[in-house]
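Two records follow; treat each independently.
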Amino acid sequence: MLDKVQDTLFSHVKPADTAFRGDGLRDFFLYRDLGVADATRGKVVAQLVIAHNAPEKGTGWHRHEADFHIVFMLRGWAKFMYDDQETLVSAGDCVHQRPGVRHYLFDYSPDMEYLEIVGPANFKTIDVEPVCPVPESKGWGL
């Protein structure tokens, strides 16, 4: 076990150390890297994700090639489809997205902010065929 610990580095990222950026997976979100990918040499990524633009079409149906994926909602809310199950994720909720689960984020509040932790850091996102109809986004949930 100790040999695995020695493969990682200490990391301490303060809010002013990294800015929210728009070059992440989705152009309607902003992402703030928390330094974990570098510290774990790519084993895990941790990032804050915030709403940037009102939802129009959402993420579309997709899955991730990842061994581990959690979303912890810090503020606001988001609505997901996980397979055929509509799921409201609100502030304080934690979701473990099992590997390969087909999902679709289709609506969220303007103040939405979540912590996302995924392993490995360079996980892939793969579009999939629709699982079921998706409720319409209400554009900032209004």
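The next record belongs to a different protein.
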Amino acid sequence: MAQSAVPSAGAPPQAQPTPAPLRVPIREVLPWAVFAVVLAAVLIYFVGAEQGATSLFGGTWVHEFTHDGRHLLGFPCH
């Protein structure tokens, strides 16, 4: 005999299984987080400060390459 989708009035409700919380191990995430922070710092340096007295590379090619991004992010350059 098929079971009804609606429990009868006298039947006890069945317990729903609770999902186990997802555990993210810090040791696996930490190297990627450090890499992301270092990469972001290098990108912000090149977009925001790679010109003038703090320039690591001679010439203006880095400045010209990042010129539009510099204005988009609000860094002055002229």
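Discussion point: The longest helix spans residues 26-48. How would you locate this feature using only the token line?
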